[in-house]
Design brief:
single chain, 224 residues, alpha+beta, 2 domains, 8-stranded mixed beta sheet, 21% strand
Length: 224
């Protein structure tokens, strides 16, 4: 065969090149294995964090799902503290509202509008621009796509400010004079089931832990 007549130094060089290529291929495969392991770990951690961020708030609401009743004036003066499932009495719609359309059907999906006490509503109607709005209402089932101006008792869960509202919709609120600690009421919504929220929260935590162990395991297996 050809390599039997090849000078020894040249044969050694070929062998070294082949061995080097094999080592590089093995290292590349190990590297790709680690990368694949890390991507899987990152995916698990990302899903787990998403579940935790959504279900933690649901669990906070559901673990103390007793309805707390407020008068709108009390909210304007003192807020709602840590209460999340609330009823607001004597709330008057200012008449302003924002319609949010469904992108697929182009139909009205919900209406968002400010409410306040009757005294503040009169001042706003008279052009007083110093009065700030303390409560915004999200109505996901508006009658005939209109505000129910005769409804003065509102019940639902308080959201965490405007965080759960799309940025494009927030831009429509620029004409409203809103308080910094604004309360956004998801009308007619009720707290989620406590057991389900807790189970989902624990599942999210387990996914994060499993993702961390998977990422560490990818590095350890590569070193071995």
């Amino acid at each position: 065969m050809y390599f039997l007549f090849t000078p020894f130094p040249l044969y050694s060089l070929k062998f070294s090149l082949i061995f080097s290529c094999l080592c590089e291929e093995i290292q590349m495969r190990s590297f790709l294995k680690v990368i694949n392991g890390l991507w899987g770990a990152i995916l698990l951690i990302g899903i787990g964090v998403t579940i935790i961020s959504t279900q933690y708030d649901n669990y906070r609401i559901s673990k103390d799902n007793n309805l707390t009743v407020y008068n709108i004036k009390d909210i304007e003066n003192n807020g709602i503290g840590t209460s999340r499932y609330i009823q607001i009495n004597d709330a008057i719609a200012t008449g302003d509202y924002v319609k949010v359309y469904n992108k697929e059907t182009n139909e009205i999906d919900r209406i968002i509008y400010p409410v306040c006490s009757i005294d503040k509503a009169r001042k706003i109607a008279n052009g007083d621009k110093k009065e700030k709005i303390s409560v915004m209402v999200i109505d996901n089932n508006p009658p005939d796509a209109l505000i129910d101006i005769n409804r003065t008792t509102l019940k639902g869960t308080a959201l965490v400010g405007l965080d759960e509202i799309e940025d494009s919709t927030k831009d429509l609120f620029k004409s409203f004079n809103l308080k910094h600690n604004l309360i956004v009421l998801d009308l007619d919504s009720t707290p989620a089931d406590k057991e389900f929220s807790l189970s989902a929260l624990l599942f999210g935590i387990l996914m994060v832990l499993f993702g961390l162990f998977a990422g560490i395991g990818a590095f350890i297996s590569d070193e071995e």
